[in-house]
């Protein structure tokens, strides 16, 4: 690893924030797989061919939304508003909700970028450069990205708050030798 990567990993609070974000990511993936399996119970005797569609949709969902949301939670819990043992429960809940909001912003940006790339590549593959990348199609992509980010914020905020409270309890039982602070603490 480079010296920059070593410095980032050794920064205060990075590892616990990384583990917290990984837990959020794992739960989101398991939740979506279980949701799919339960939804497929209604199609048992029908002979549906939605298996391929499911993998392509959820591959994009995991790669675009869940990864970016988890990275946003990592940035929120590590850099912007870290959870510390000396905080009160209300502060932990607020900081966790803020981390979830940062995750939703990251998911919004990722969906916008992926939508723009898909629209541009459809135009390029059709030999008409940027023919599909119009104002209307980008407005539709922005609306879809906003809807996805909003839905992810609403559905994942309780999970992020739970992870924040569990992190707070763990930090209370395993005190840190140094003070952890983020951008919100210096403002």
What secondary-structure arrangement, pairings included, does this model have?
Elements: H1 3-10, H2 14-40, H3 50-80, H4 89-125, H5 135-173, H6 183-186
Offer a quick outline of the entry.
The protein is mostly helical and 187 residues long. The chain has six helices and no strands. The longest helix has 39 residues, at 135-173.
Characteristic terms for this protein:
mainly alpha; globular; 187 residues
The overall average pLDDT, rounded, is 84
* SS elements, strand count: 0
Helix content: over 70%
Principal-axes geometry comes out as: globular
Weakly predicted, low-confidence segments: none
Give the end-to-end Cα distance, rounded to a whole number of Å: 32 Å
Strand content: under 5%
Category by helix and strand content: mainly alpha
Assembly type of the shown chains? single chain
Walk me through this protein's architecture.
Helices cover 78% and strands 0% of the residues. It contains six helices and no strands. Helix 2 packs antiparallel against helix 3 (50-80), helix 2 crosses helix 5 and helix 3 (50-80) crosses helix 5 (135-173). It is globular and about 55 Å long. The two termini are 32 Å apart.
